[in-house]
Structure prediction request, 715 residues.
Amino acid sequence: MNARSDNGVVLTVDPIACRAHGLCAEELPEGISLDEWGYPILPSRPLSRKLLRRAKSAAAACPVLALRVSRSRG
Amino acid sequence: MNATVLWYSSRAVGVVSLVLFTAVVVLGIATAGRASSTAFPRAAVLRLHRALSIAATAFIAVHIATAILDSYVNISYWDIVVPFGSSFDPFWIGLGAVAIDLLIAIGITSAFRRRLSLRAWRAVHLSAYAMWPIALIHGFGVSGGDGQQRWMIALDIVCIAAVLGALAFRLRPDRHPDTIARRWDDATDRPRVSVGASS
Amino acid sequence: MNASSLSTASTAGQNLSAHPDSTSGPIGVARLLPPARITLWPEHQRYYGPVLPTSAPSLADLVRASGLRGRGGAGFPTATKIDAVASGGGRPRGAVVVANCCEGDPTARKDRVLITRAPHLVIDGALVAASAVGADRVVFAVHQGSRSGSTLRAALAERGAAATAVSVVEVPHRFVASEASALVRFLNTGDARPLGRLAPVWESGVDGRPTLVDNAETLAQLALIARFGERWFRSVGSPEEPGTALVTVGGAVPRPGVVEIGTGTTIRTILAAAGASPTGWALIGGLAGRWVDLAVIATTRFTTADLAAAGAVRGVGSIIVLPTNGCLLTETARVLHHLADSGARQCGPCIFGLPAIAADMSALAAGDRMALTRLRRRLPTIDRRGACAHPDGAVAVAASALTVLGGPESSHLRQHLSHHGCRAAAPVVPLGVVNPTRAVSR
Prediction:
């Protein structure tokens, strides 16, 4: 448990909307990888808040807006 | 400012805008069509599409500003967005105004993309397929045929060829596994295709 | 199908009731299921007694004090659901109660037995739930062409007009079609596919109104609680999960059927009611349940917590016993192929992941050593990546198969790997109706 409470970055995907375009993984390879069928595997724990801007790029890059970014006290 | 300089600037910047918007349309079609290469990943294609659209909009703003500011022809601010009311070249300027209206709608909906439904955003965005040819035709016919010089026509043909090429790519049958797997047969209330080896 | 009661198994026989005007409630575990079918309403009222009108807040308190948990598979506390729906959304639009009588899991037969034997009890429960949440509409969801539908319609017709609008609605015969959010979506749009884990049907469900979706057996229990009170309800069964429960025992047993048990009864006792002894493999909890070695789990009590601690799951309350020469691998492969075909086709990891692990399980049964590696790699990546729990169930049953196989029975797996199969009996795990209009692959 961090002594400083950090605003972690939480990624969620709407699996019904996702069409395996894969742009999210290109924008944020540190956080998102693709499974063998091209669908995103998201981290189970919040990411470092340094990645917030890149995470927002990843969400903006999704052609079907399936990826959402939110902040949590991590 | 010398009226002639403004007038020539407007036309030149207009030509550049057309080229930029052609690139924007081609890149947009490529994104939707899942075009990708190792050199140019899809996210890069999308970023370029968005960056160029902003640049092209800036050029259009200059194109409009110089056209209005110059005293050679009488175009009012109103004529930017209300078509066919200009005292100079009402029809051809009007086409430009229609294109601008569509561009404004596309720009605003894209800026607020996250707050709209995907369907609403896409419906407006698809009007780019109308905006681009209208802009091209506006350039062709405006101001008494300046756009009908040989080199201008050659440029138009190149732009049209680029967009048609992109469309040919886009209209090829969608064989992505996700698209195929999701097809549902409403008649039998079953998926159309069986995925994987079924026993 | 036999329905019998384990009347001697547990109970202290305390039948005190806090309910003001009631006579003592039924003693023992013969609560839900009468000894013979009761389809006529007057007969039903004579057998169970009347439901006395109670105000909504008292009903909610009654359910909370009784500790009733859902009997549809999730085991969610019923009072929590009732509270959420009763306070969800804003008035004046009333809430909606959906009685899930579909029984989508083919290993379970308890709901159809309950509805056949005591349809009016389920109806009573739905109406009690309606007054508890302030609903003016009740829907009984059944699969297309099922007998439960006609039984319920006949029972409702007998009762005549009610204050609430009551209807029986037929739902497409698909495994995921009776998932709670899928039911709500079907009632709204005709599309019977799940909406997603976070669809708040308790706030905005049918017609955008707060909706309570409860299993038929849960509602029947509710009907009894409303008559006899929470102390009566708690007088049988284990304290942390009180009351009785319906369990389906099937597969290779002498007397397959549905038994009513006090919760907390051991698996050995349940199997004994079906004439079986606790040996060999069994699938507990449904197609999305867990494989167990009955010898290991014989003394485990049939409660949500105890089963989970033993590596099993309560699920839809079914136990399918394999014959002594049954093959867990072949059965699992068969189940996985069925689950892969039964998905709603909405989420990539499920659309592609389930057929992949089904193929891997078949390959493992055929002796492919690499299939085990593939399974171990794939199972964690598919888990919890769909909009509903369908892929999670498939992953869980596959993982439990590998766990159980890898234990003392690992000799069986070795036989598959060296001999590319085993001499197994015909499969016994029921898969339900296989849609005759199967899709053609391109």
Chain B has a mean pLDDT of 89. Residues 3-191 of chain B form one domain.
